Prior knowledge:
The protein is mainly β. It has helices at about 15-20, 70-80, 90-95, 110, and strands at about 25, 25-30, 35-40, 45-50, 55-60, 80-85, 115-120, 125, 130-145, 150-160, 165, 170, 180, 185-190. It is built from 4 helices and 14 strands.
Amino acid sequence: MFYRPEDGHGLPHNPFNAIVTPRPIGWISTRGSDGHDNLAPYSFFNAVAYFPPQVMFSSTSAKPDRGDTKDSVSQIRETSVFCVNIVEYAMKDVMNQTSGAWDRGVDEFELAGIEKAQCDTINCARVAGAPANLECKLTQIVQLPGEANFAVFGEVTGVHMRDDCLVDGIFDVLRFNPLSRMGYRDYTVVREKFSLNRPGE
């Protein structure tokens, strides 16, 4: 099968997200200029550079009470900071609860019963029990082609790692089993790993 996205795929559901998988989930926490906290998951998320460490996520829809975007991007525009909280399998249900299109006045930490902690390098809340948190200062927001498509880039200014996830100096993902997004309503979880040496190593 071949299709041009501009012509449509003719399938019951869009296959694009099922092709680009699995995708790590950036559980983004933000705090507005009014002090209101927000927490929402984004599956267009990844690390993009080592030195200095940088990450990005993309928001691809809008809410009527936020104009051209959603709560996360709107609050980052106000404060220029955000935190990426890593999602473990055990947090799948509370993460999903925060994915709703809740009113801008809703604090998803409180809605889903998630414990907050204060970030160290930025004025923002983080998920206290997450395996890791990346505190970030905004570097740029890029408007992508298409309505409400914004890519947010940030430099990591602080890193939290849960002590039980460190094994012999290695951050061991099998200690918490990262949750990843696939296509449609599907998710997957990392339960095994293997290593490969690069040529010449």
